[in-house]
Specification:
Blueprint (H helix, E strand, L loop, with lengths): L1 H5 L21 H11 L5 E4 L2 H4 L3 H13 L3 E4 L4 E2 L8 H14 L3
Parallel strand pairs: 1-2
Antiparallel strand pairs: 2-3
Helix pairs in contact: 4-5
Length: 107
């Protein structure tokens, strides 16, 4: 919400998955958001960081590519990632690998 306020974005929806793990995408908030993307209702997805979006290297990359194909911008605020920047960010896949590895370690 702070990012939206700081960037004068007034029309936004929050898709919340409190209590669900980011280790998979079988989450109600994500499902609702993805349906809205498919219906053309969303043009930008903003997350705190990539690990909050998901922790599967393959799935995160796949969804972000699907968003791009649909003209949906993806922003990971704390990771300073914005898919609209055009250039390939080599750290994007590296962060995904690190996030998947970190959260797969025994607790």
């Amino acid at each position: 919400m702070q990012y939206c306020k700081d960037h004068a974005i007034k029309n936004y929806e929050i898709y919340d998955d409190d209590g669900f793990s980011g280790t998979n995408f079988d989450r109600p908030g994500f499902g609702r958001m993805y349906e809205d993307i498919q219906r053309g209702l969303i043009d930008t997805v903003i997350v705190k960081d990539q690990s909050r979006f998901g922790r599967s290297y393959i799935d995160v990359g796949m969804y972000v590519e699907q968003f791009k194909d649909r003209g949906v911008r993806f922003i990971a605020v704390d990771d300073c990632y914005d898919s609209s920047q055009g250039e390939y960010d080599m750290m994007f896949p590296m962060r995904n690998v690190i996030n998947e590895y970190y959260y797969s370690l025994p607790k």
